[in-house]
UniProtKB/TrEMBL annotation:
It comes from the Eukaryota. Methylates caffeoyl-CoA to feruloyl-CoA and 5-hydroxyferuloyl-CoA to sinapoyl-CoA. Plays a role in the synthesis of feruloylated polysaccharides. Involved in the reinforcement of the plant cell wall. Also involved in the responding to wounding or pathogen challenge by the increased formation of cell wall-bound ferulic acid polymers. One of its GO terms (biological process) is lignin biosynthetic process. The gene is CCoAMT. This is caffeoyl-CoA O-methyltransferase. Pathway: Aromatic compound metabolism; phenylpropanoid biosynthesis.
Length: 161
């Protein structure tokens, strides 16, 4: 998701002028919230925004075959219950040597908490999905990982196979 566009703007500013970003969000209003700043920064031409669920877009990219191994960097901050579904697709789209970043992989610190620790209902619900993602990434032989303890945790995955 792009939410307010902050990460999208930072990425667009860091990339060369001819770079392209595929940004997705289920709500166009989230993208449009940050669009004036993106336009003012002069980087709107780098962004191709797609509204709607990401999985069908990713499936289409895989199906057409042209995008296989073509992405240098992918950043995921979306519905945690689909992170594993994203990973299954994104690993095909990122090139060998490319990076996939998953946001919120510490999930409010709950990934290190005992199962019976008190947690808000939605935190507890999504915790299991984040834990499963973390376990899957740790044993995926196609990637090397580094979990960064910044914010709510970001796991970087470098595709090696």
């Amino acid at each position: 998701g792009v939410y307010t566009g902050y990460s999208l703007l930072a990425t667009a500013l860091a990339l060369p002028d001819d770079a392209k970003i595929l940004a997705m969000d289920i709500n166009r209003e989230n993208y449009e919230l940050g669009l004036p700043i993106i336009q003012k920064a002069g980087v709107a031409h780098k962004i191709d925004f797609k509204e709607g669920p990401a999985l069908p877009v990713l499936d289409q990219l895989i199906e057409d075959g042209k995008s296989h191994g073509s992405f240098d960097f992918i950043f995921v901050d979306a519905d945690k219950d689909n992170y594993l579904n994203y990973h299954k697709r994104l690993i095909e789209l990122v090139k060998v040597g490319g990076l996939i970043g998953y946001d919120n992989t510490l999930w409010n610190g709950t990934v290190a908490a005992p199962d019976d620790a008190p947690m808000r209902k939605y935190i507890k619900y999504y915790r299991d999905f984040v834990l499963e993602l973390n376990k899957t990434l740790a044993v995926d032989p196609r990637i090397e990982i580094c979990m960064l303890p910044v914010g709510d945790g970001i796991t970087l995955c470098r595709r090696i196979k």
